[in-house]
Amino acid sequence: MPPIKTNHYICKILLAIFFSLLIHPSKAQNSSNNIYATANNTNFLLSSANSLETEQTLTNAFTLDVASMNGPYTVYVRIANISSSSATPIPASMLAVQLNSYDCSRCSITTAKLSLSQTDQWLVQANKKSSGDSYNYDLSLAPLGYNYAPDTYTFTILFTLTQP
């Protein structure tokens, strides 16, 4: 069997790989305490060798709007579900979030890039009541290389608002 040319192999993989992330607009808690997540730009389309071999970042991929009229709050993030038809799922840690901008006074915020997992991870802690804090996050996908089958991969990100 003749050797497979790298470019031909790459093209076949690239035509089929499509990565998508679902963040449905959602409101949780109650009218006094809620978190509203809005997906602005959450699809990665890996259609070139460069996109498979380098980190991809979606600027302002999602926005969190938080209201907590009953006092201080904490926001956590985790991957709630990963699905694909492929036998080799992409690990949650291939995704990362990083704060891009925010409107919140007296808040402690994780500003470093945070690799996601299926365990709750701390994003924000506000030490006050709030009628409307807002956070914009970038979403990054680590280089996938050629280790994963061409497929549509879906990740569900869960944001949790808690109060002490």
Description of the structure:
The protein has 164 residues and is mainly beta. The termini are far apart. It is elongated. It has helices at 6-16, 49-53, and strands spanning 18-22, 26-27, 33-39, 43-44, 56-68, 73-83, 95-103, 107-109, 114-115, 121-126, 130-141, 152-162. Strands 4-1-12-6-10-8 form a 6-stranded mixed sheet. Strands 2-3-5-11-7-9 form a 6-stranded antiparallel sheet, with no helix packed on it. Residues 1-28 have low confidence and may be disordered. It has 2 helices and 12 strands, in the order αββββαββββββββ. It has one domain (6-162): Immunoglobulin-like.
Break the fold down into its secondary structure elements and pairings.
Elements: H1 6-16, E1 18-22, E2 26-27, E3 33-39, E4 43-44, H2 49-53, E5 56-68, E6 73-83, E7 95-103, E8 107-109, E9 114-115, E10 121-126, E11 130-141, E12 152-162
Parallel strand pairs: 1-12
Antiparallel strand pairs: 1-4, 2-3, 3-5, 5-11, 6-10, 6-12, 7-9, 7-11, 8-10
Uncertain regions spanning at least 5 consecutive residues? 1-28
The first-to-last residue Cα distance is 65 Å
CATH topology: Immunoglobulin-like
Query: What's the architecture in CATH terms?
Result: Sandwich
Overall CATH class: Mainly Beta
- Helix percentage: under 10%
Integer average pLDDT: 80
Tally of helical runs: 2
Number of strands: 12
- Oligomeric state as shown: single chain
- Proportion of residues in β-strands: over 45%
Biggest sheet, spatial arrangement of strands = 4-1-12-6-10-8
**Largest beta sheet, briefly?**
6 strands, mixed
| Tertiary shape | elongated
Total discrete domains = 1
Give the structural class: mainly beta
